[in-house]
Amino acid sequence: MIPHRLKSARAKAKLTQEKLGVLAGIDESTARSRVSQYESGTYSPNFDTMCHFARVLNVPECYFYIIDDAFAEQILALYEVFRAAQK
Q1: Which Pfam family, any one of them, does this sequence belong to (predicted)?
Q2: pLDDT of the chain along its 87 residues, tens only?
Q3: The whole model's pTM is what?
């Protein structure tokens, strides 16, 4: 997982660390600290947790794992087109 991608997607969604954690199913008492640790790279969440974050943040799961930043942004743009076409 690329930590800065989680922080970037959360900021774009205008969510606090606590709110993101709670919406992703993390207990409210630890949500802020866990998301903070994920964003700083101190700990890495498991894939299931990342899938929950992706759903809440409306980004594809792979966005958090692609190493090349430019490619990750292209995937994000493609995902937005895909989601718009599904509506």
Answers
A1: HTH_3
A2: 999 999 999 999 999 999 999 999 999 999 999 999 999 999 999 999 999 999 999 999 999 999 999 999 999 999 999 999 998
A3: 0.93
